[in-house]
Structure formats: C-alpha cells, structure tokens
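Justification of computing resources. Each target in the renewal requires a structure prediction run like the one illustrated here; the chain below, 141 residues long, is used simply to show the kind of job we budget for.
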Amino acid sequence: MRLVVQRVREAQVGIAGKIDSGLLVLLGVGARDTTQTVDILIKKLANLRVMADKEGKMNLSVRDTKASVLVVSQFTLYADTSKGNRPSFIKAATPDKARELYDYFVARLQDQDIKVETGSFGEYMKINALLDGPVTILFEE
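Resulting structure tokens:
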C-alpha cells in the first residue's frame, strides 16, 4: 500500500468530499496488500505528528487537533515505468480488492475518532488542495 500524505489548509474533491485544515491522503492499493497492511498504516497515519502546535512546530496528530482527513483512491501510485514510457499497473490491486481495502481503510480511520471525507472510488476526479507547509510524506508498507 502506498500513501501520499499532504498537510492542507483545505482540500476538496468533486462536490462531496471537502475538508478544512487536515490531511489529504492519496491511497494506492497493491496486489499484495491485506487488511493487516491497512491496520499498520492506519496506526501510523492517526498518530503522525505533522500538525502544528501553538509554537508552529510539527508536534500534533490529526487526532490531537481534531483535524479532518480527505482520502482519495489513486491506483496510479503503482505506475511502473521501468520498461518504457507507458506506465504499467501490474503491481496494483484488482479493482474489487482495491475497493474492499479502500473501504476498510476509511472505516478504520473513522474508528480512530477522525473525521474522514472521501472521493469517488474508481472515478475521474478533480482535486483542489491548498497545501500547508508544504508537508508531504510518503508511506509504503
């Protein structure tokens, strides 16, 4: 599983998923990922100390600050261009498996008492984000 986590002042995908201060998470599901993979990343993400404290230092998590998370499915995080210019997505999960683990990821994140918004799984989406910092962190499990 691959995550691109960006701290944002606001982010919106389509007309449904919108957050103010928090994290934008682009989520790619790999063919070998399981619910255990999700559980590991949820623990890391929920406790990730990238939110600013009163002194402006990255000391707090989204849980600490009651910030929100916008989760957007992004299978292109598994693009492989090692054999040419046209990306291969052979290492990405099948759409059914990816949907199952995406839904599980969102549910587990909500279980952490974090407000979660989402994009539309498998759909073309336009994302607007006002990055804060910028702070961008890559996770791969």
